[in-house]
Amino acid sequence: MSPFRVLFREFFGQFFASESVTSDIRLRQGIIAVVAFLMAPGMILAIQMYPTYSYAVRGAPELVEPLTRQLTSLFLTFSTVSVGLVSAFAWDALSFDRRDAMVLGPLPIGRATVVSAKLAALVVFLLGACVPLNLMTAVPFSMIASGHKGISGTVHHFIAHMVATTCAAACVFSAIVILRGLLGMTTRGHLASALASLLQFACVSALLCFFILAPTMLTIDRHPQNAGITISGIHMTVMPAWMPTRWFLPMYEQLRDPQNAAAANVARRSAIATLAMIGGAAFITLAGYRRQLQIALTPAASAGTIGGARLSRALARRLSGSNRVAHAASDFVLTTIARNRMQQALVAINASIGLAMFILELARHRGGLASAVRAPEVLLAMPLMLAFWTCIGLRAAFFVPSELPAAWTFRANAPRGTSAYALATRAAVVAVVGPPTVVAALATAALAYGWPVAARHASFVLLLVVALADFVVLTIDHVPFTRPYRPGHAKLKTRWPLYVLGAYGFSSGLAALELAVWNHRWHSAALLTGAVIAVAVFEAAVRRSGRDWPALPTEEITDDFFKVTALNLSNAAAGHA
Question: 28 or 329: which carries more pLDDT confidence?
Fold first, then answer.
């Protein structure tokens, strides 16, 4: 095989491999499941619009084209958000890193070969991500929206759909590649990792919000002064013009109808912008490889403030008391989260679920978005909803190993029969979730009731966060990140209703309970006292169950440290001779 083919295969394989999982096969199965999940909503949306189109074609032909443009904007948004999500999860493989430069730099391979293989892998990954998604929506949508125009109209619609959605996805993908390359060239340490987790949080939140708000975005504008129309029972309003996907709508219309001269200029500019973004991504990839070759010759960067998690570690030590073992364990937990992308990704994904559920609550509010923002029950529940899902994300991250062979140090040095590990894990959860939740609670309560009441509310929220952290720790029985990953431990397929009920009960339920006693001093004091008692009970339970935590499970110690395997290589060599 030529060097180009070897490098292309390896670069493309990086999108489907991770050092934090025990099996690449399971990782690939998970990626396939995510892509299959993303295929379904667009196809279902297109098929569900068939009755509406049938009604419009027969009874209101003037509404067919506006409805088509609006649905096109939805599909463009869906394509860009989905590809952005996939790209965010493949963040580390989008550009060269220090290890790539250290491995490939000394080899007798030209830079052109390395960069071209990387670009080819990026192109194939992009097409593999966006083409199946767009194809599943292009086929039914073109048949439903343009079936009354004959075969020629359907074909033009299909081509326009595939080209416009792919260009929109390529523009977003190129922008993420450029961002990844710039961060790799300009930042070192763990700042780039933190920004990648923030990008994952934004992409997952955007995708979930799209699923939630898509029904309300089915809009049509029959007259400029009348933005509300009901068609076949569906009320539609105009999609905002500031959305980036609206820039590719003229390209879609011009390809669907070549005689549409009004959209030709904007479509041409959108095509030029897409080519410019693709060219910029190629240039940043080339420049990034050169920069990584330079970085490979310099000493590794220090952990820094973010990688060292100094603030969280200091708070966790205060919460752990004077136990030195708990101090060391909490430092281990927090620095592992701060320095590992896989653990950060799980926390970001779950936090984005909390944000999406909060936006769903806003969308369901009767008074509209402006009224929902001012509603006290919504404002008080928001920090609790985010805190709940962030704790769930931390629990999921605890089951993912960081550097599994290094777990031997706990077996060799850690004491037995101590609750320090459980207390350290609880302190780490509170140190991560507590400060932002309390700040958000202070801000939201002060906005509605003033600072004196906000201080009381923040105290209640802090007690709830501590109780939730204790409850999360009670559901695990080992030091985080020190045992192999066990698939299915969360049992989401069967227990997802419990997660949803728990989220609403912890956020909206407790916020409603607090509002019920808001104006009664003695009732409020009783509520705070109950929260303190709950924390004390959970704390005692954590101390008791934490004594049974082993540094390493017994079966893993036996398998990994005392099992001897004879390979019989001498006999095999003799038989071969």
Answer: 329
Average pLDDT over residues 233-248: 58
Take residue 127 and report the two structure tokens written for it.
């097409």
Q: Is the pLDDT of residue 42 over 80?
A: no
Helices (H), 300-340: 304-308, 310-320, 324-339
Q: Which residues contact 456 (CB under 8 A, 6 or more apart)?
A: 524, 528
Q: What angle do CA 238, 239, 244 make, to 5 degrees?
A: 150
Query: Which of 277-281, 305-309, 495-499 comes out lowest in average pLDDT?
Result: 305-309
Amino acid at 257: D
- In 3D space, the residue among 325, 342, 344 whose CA is nearest the CA of residue 425 turns out to be 325
Q: Nearest to residue 443, comparing CAs of 378, 524, 517, 383?
A: 383
What is the token pair recorded at 505? 């009960």
By C-alpha distance, which of 69, 65, 109, 95 is closest to 187? 95
pLDDT for 417 equals 74
Return d(Cα 548, Cα 542) in angstroms, integer.
10
DSSP single-letter state for residue 509 = I
Any idea what the Cα angle at residue 146 is, between residues 141 and 149, rounded to 5°? 165
What are the structural domain ranges in the chain?
Answer: 3-298, 319-561
**pLDDT exceeds cutoff 50 at 61:** yes
Cβ(173)–Cβ(126) under 8 Å?
yes
Are 473 and 426 in contact, with CB atoms under 8 Å apart?
yes
Q: How far apart are CA 238 and CA 536, in angstroms?
A: 53
The span from the first CA to the last CA of the chain, in angstroms, equals: 30
pLDDT digits 0-9 by tens, 113-133: 999 999 999 999 999 888 888
Class of residue 565 by CB neighbours under 10 A (exposed 0-12, middle 13-18, buried 19+): exposed
Asked if 213 and 363 count as a contact pair (C-beta separation under 8 A), the reply is: yes
Tokens of 251: 């390209």
The dihedral over CA atoms of 385, 387, 388, 390, expressed in degrees to the nearest 10, equals: 120
The structure tokens listed for 339 are 């320095």
**Distance in angstroms (rounded) separating the CA atoms of residues 424 and 549:** 12
How confident is the model over 437-485, as pLDDT tens digits?
A: 999 888 888 876 777 778 888 899 999 999 999 999 998 888 888 887 7
- Please report which helix (H) or strand (E) contains residue 276, including its range: helix 264-296
DSSP string, 64-105: HHHHHHHHHHHHHHHHHHHHHHHHHHTGGGSS--HHHHHHHT
Residue 231: strand, helix, or coil: strand
Q: Which amino acid is at 126?
A: L
Token pair recorded at residue 144: 């439903």
Asked if 336 and 475 touch (Cβ cutoff 8 Å), the reply is no
Q: How high is the pLDDT of residue 433?
A: 94
Nearest to 19 by CA among 307, 404, 303: 404
Give the SS3 label for residue 409. Answer: helix
Compute CA 404 distance to the chain's CA centroid, rounded to the nearest angstrom: 24
Closest CA to 3 of 109, 111, 124, 99: 109
Strands 234-236 and 229-231: antiparallel
Q: pTM for this one? A: 0.72
